[in-house]
Amino acid sequence: MAEQGSGGNVIAALCSVFIPGLGQLVQGRLLPAILFFVVCMAGYAMWWLIFIPAVIAGLVHLWSILDAATFKNRAY
Question: Using an 8 Å Cβ cutoff, are 25 and 33 in contact?
Fold first, then answer.
């Protein structure tokens, strides 16, 4: 879609801030979008169990944002 640092990546990163994986979906990457969403939602849903899943989900959520912001399309 767009080069690293472009407006498209900024929009994708902002999308991932609100919903994990949405930025990857905007960029057309379906599998990473599904994986980020499922892992984060499962971790956030189990916050009451123990604190560890929520911490892991938070780290994966941050990874999702950074991945969307730094994605570089390798198809030329």
Answer: yes
Output DSSP code: residue 1: -
Measured in Å, how far apart are the chain's first and last C-alpha atoms?
11
| Domain map (residue ranges) of the chain | 7-70
DSSP 25-57: HHTT-HHHHHHHHHHHHHHHHTTTT-HHHHHHH
- Which residue type does 54 have? A
pLDDT at 76: 58
Tell me what the pLDDT averaged over the chain comes to: 87
